[in-house]
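Practice problem 4.
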């Protein structure tokens, strides 16, 4: 495999799709050696078959706001690869959504889902709809209009969407209601459902909990633990909330959260009712964290990122490319020992290089945030069995999956000095399972 040639060809076909090309480059660079050791991968054109999605559906979504004004948004579903199970991955509603971002997320999802040990392929979807400032009834009408197109593409054994940025329990409810009406069936076609209608306990917490479980495994390799550590978290959504809750439970002090408006610094630690306040902030649809500073009388740093705050552990949980080289440098200078990605691709390649150079424990999103989709997989199992598992049962399974993912990374990412490159380990382990499935199933 010639990585540069593949990327040049890919860029010619998809000019300007920066995030997608960035994600493909990272995977190709990690797997190059393993790939070249097995000539049958090359002869079966495995890479060419994995880097293009199976298909992309794009559609328009006309909807009316509360004043009767009509808006038209774009909707997408990318079915990337289903060699190991039904297409599976979230829906993102955010004004920045475009094909490049959804293709990067869908591509990552293939390998992430492969690492979970569960039978799930990779997909992603969403819309450039901006939920900010919308009323509940506007969100409902938009979700219904979105599903009016999407339902033809999905099914419990075909493609199972879930949440992502801007899509949480409320949106999944509106989407599911419309699917049920159109398809005339109750099926596990979406995950992240409400507890009373097919949802799994722990799903809302799963990504954040899983991220902390993964970081805990990384810390253990150095004889370290969360207890007594200072943690910086970015974002204030579903993932940031779960990570803050679990890190605090394990005895750490989470001192920051952030939003598009800046970050708050709470030296006493974000715990108890303060953690639940995050949910109120998110549900307010205003996308600002500053109200936390008013509510609890702490510092707010406008238009800044939390990475300048001294911490032992950093958990970026907001969005892609939110932690750059300069931020990485500040974290290292301040003595940070571990960075675990709750968001998808929050650290730029330059930041990741710096973490590796300084031998930090660095957990890439496709391993460290796989807890969310893992519990989605467990929700699918419960739906198929028509059973509900207890909180303890789901949490124990999540914990064991995160340990397994960590183990796979160590197996494929350790060098002769014992340092673990978790990026390499996750990419190789995730890739091998999918590539072998594609090989086994012939040219389709
Ligand atoms: P949410 O919508 O619950 O929260 C995301 C929040 O982060 C939004 O409030 C958003 O605000 C904010 N945000 C966006 N950009 C920035 C920024 N630059 N700095 C600070 N805050 C920002 O989404 P989730 O918590 O579900 O998702 C967060 C990340 O985790 C995403 O990368 C997602 O792909 C990833 N993830 C999510 C999983 C899940 O199960 N939900 C599973 C695995 C990964 P605004 O809208 O104004 O930009
Ligand atoms: O990025 C992700 O893994 C998610 N947004 C969760 C996907 C899912 O299907 O639960």
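Answer key:
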């Amino acid at each position: 495999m010639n990585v540069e040639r593949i990327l040049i060809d890919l860029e010619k076909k998809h000019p300007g799709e920066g995030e997608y090309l960035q994600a493909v480059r990272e995977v190709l660079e990690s797997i190059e050696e393993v790939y070249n050791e097995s000539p049958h991968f090359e002869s079966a054109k495995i890479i060419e078959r994995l880097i293009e999605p199976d298909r992309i559906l794009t559609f328009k979504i006309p909807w009316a706001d509360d004043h009767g004004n009509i808006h038209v948004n774009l909707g997408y579903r990318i079915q990337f690869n289903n060699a190991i199970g039904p297409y599976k991955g979230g829906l993102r509603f955010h004004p920045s959504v475009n094909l490049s971002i959804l293709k990067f997320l869908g591509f990552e999802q293939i390998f992430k889902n492969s690492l979970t040990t569960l039978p799930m392929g990779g997909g992603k979807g969403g819309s450039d709809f901006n939920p900010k400032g919308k009323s509940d009834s506007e969100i409902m009408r938009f979700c219904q209009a979105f599903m009016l197109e999407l339902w033809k593409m999905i099914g419990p054994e075909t493609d199972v969407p879930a949440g992502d940025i801007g899509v949480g329990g409320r949106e999944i409810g509106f989407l599911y209601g419309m699917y049920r009406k159109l398809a005339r069936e109750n099926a596990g076609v979406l995950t992240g459902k409400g507890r009373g209608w097919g949802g799994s306990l722990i799903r809302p917490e799963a990504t954040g909990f899983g991220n902390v479980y993964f970081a805990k495994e990384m810390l253990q390799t150095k004889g370290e633990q969360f207890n007594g550590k200072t943690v910086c978290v970015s974002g204030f959504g579903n993932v940031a909330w779960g990570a803050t809750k679990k890190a605090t439970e394990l005895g750490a002090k989470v001192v920051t959260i952030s939003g598009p408006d800046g970050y708050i610094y709470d030296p006493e630690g974000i715990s108890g009712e303060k953690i639940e306040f995050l949910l109120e902030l998110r549900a307010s649809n205003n996308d600002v964290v500053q109200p936390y500073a008013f509510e609890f009388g702490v510092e707010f740093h406008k238009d800044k990122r939390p990475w300048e705050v001294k911490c032992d552990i950093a958990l970026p949980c907001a969005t892609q490319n939110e932690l750059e080289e300069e931020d990485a440098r500040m974290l290292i200078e301040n003595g940070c020992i571990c960075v675990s990605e709750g968001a998808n691709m929050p650290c730029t390649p330059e930041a990741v290089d710096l973490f590796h150079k300084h031998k930090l424990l660095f957990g890439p999103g496709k391993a460290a945030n796989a807890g969310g989709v893992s519990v989605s997989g467990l929700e699918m199992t419960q739906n198929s069995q028509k059973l509900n598992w207890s909180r303890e049962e789901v949490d124990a399974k999540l914990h064991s999956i995160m340990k397994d993912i960590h183990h796979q990374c160590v197996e494929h990412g350790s060098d002769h000095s014992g340092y673990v490159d978790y990026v390499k380990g996750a990419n190789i382990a995730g890739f091998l399972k999918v590539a072998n499935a594609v090989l086994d199933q012939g040219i389709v």
